[in-house]
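Good morning,

Attaching, inline, the backbone tokens for the sequence recovery test we're adding to the shared suite. The designed sequence is right after.
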């Protein structure tokens, strides 16, 4: 009895997964056809829609965006450089050579 139940459960999960895959394929095909089959255009529209990328309309917007990235790079460097410096200047472990 358990074997029949597990086969039925597996078939239900497989059917649900197949239906979801068909739906995703149809949605992706429809979205790509609406942007002229350009994957980069579709990705750009997606990132604007979810707020990951904001359109920059003025030079001040662009400069502010670049300065924010610059500050993040500076913080990353100030964290990574001391760690790297300690790693490079670590004293070697003494080793003995036997004849």
């Amino acid at each position: 009895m358990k074997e029949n139940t597990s086969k039925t459960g597996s078939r239900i999960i497989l059917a649900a997964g197949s239906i979801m895959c068909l739906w995703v394929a149809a949605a992706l095909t429809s979205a790509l056809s609406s942007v002229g089959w350009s994957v980069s255009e579709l990705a750009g529209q997606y990132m604007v829609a979810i707020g990951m990328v904001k359109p920059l309309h003025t030079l001040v917007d662009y400069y502010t965006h670049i300065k924010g990235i610059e500050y993040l790079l500076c913080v990353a460097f100030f964290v990574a450089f001391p760690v790297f410096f300690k790693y490079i200047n670590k004293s070697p472990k003494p080793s003995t050579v036997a004849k």
